[in-house]
Design a protein that fits this description.
Length: about 250
């Protein structure tokens, strides 16, 4: 059973009490189903990553540090929602892309990249948290990035099985962004790591990889969370905040 093909409108907040109640029940039922399916096919793991994100720097801190240090001018944010991040970023030229709310451009990321002819210094990806979409967003972002720029990807490190389901089931929701980022780690023409802050911030630099991941698969969507839990530090090339800043400056 495929875990993709959710309609993005599913994630919009419903106005009526009954709609919200139905969504909550539906998500719990889906979560239980996927847990049972995961136990059957070897995907499920009861392990959790013990880290308190509130004790770490945030995505705002990392992005603004890079803006100041490298004098970045042109910023694009994919997935703006309430503009909590978009408003906090201190760049001269900001574009925010979201089909529903926030930002400056009311369109999908696919539509934006299809009509875009510009290059950017820093691109933050926090759109639909599903493998196929975030993979397209990352590849499109690489094509739109200045040579000395950087891409930051939110939600690369789910702390438990339920957080990485391809739909929100209650609590933190990272989706299966990790699968797309693991695939990026296997590519030779980009250099990737994950900073151990704010639900895992993926970092992509447009340079030859210093440490490409060797993984014997062509079907990254079928990667198992149980294997991810055992290998996530290697698969994601995990870095501390200070190590991530050094990685970006290589």
């Amino acid at each position: 059973m495929t875990k993709q093909a959710e309609n993005p409108e599913f994630y919009l907040k419903k106005e009526s009490y009954l709609s919200r109640k139905f969504d909550k029940i539906s998500r719990k039922m889906r979560a239980r189903y996927f847990a049972l399916e995961g136990q059957f096919n070897g995907d499920y793991s009861s392990q959790t990553i013990n880290i308190n994100w509130d004790e770490q720097p945030t995505r705002f801190d990392l992005i603004n540090t890079l803006v100041a240090k490298h004098n970045y001018k042109k910023y694009v944010e994919i997935g703006c929602s309430t503009d909590a991040c978009f408003k906090a970023i201190a760049t001269e030229d900001k574009i925010g892309v979201d089909p529903f709310m926030g930002g400056t451009h009311r369109m999908t990321s696919d539509e934006f990249f299809a009509q875009n002819n510009d290059k950017f210094d820093i691109i933050f990806i926090d759109g639909l948290h599903q493998y196929e979409q975030v993979k397209r967003d990352m590849l499109n972002a690489v094509a739109a990035l200045n040579d000395n720029g950087v891409i930051i990807v939110h939600d690369c490190l789910p702390k438990n099985y339920y957080a990485q389901l391809p739909f929100p089931s209650g609590g933190d929701w990272n989706g299966d962004v990790w699968k797309a980022f693991v695939e990026m780690r296997t590519l030779a023409h980009i250099d990737c790591a994950v900073c151990l802050i704010d639900h895992g911030l993926g970092i992509i630099k447009k340079r030859r990889s210093n440490n490409p991941l060797q993984l014997d698969t062509k079907d990254f969507l079928s990667l198992k969370f149980k294997d991810f839990m055992a290998n996530h530090r290697i698969w994601l090339n995990v870095k501390s905040y200070d190590e991530a800043l050094e990685f970006i400056n290589l």
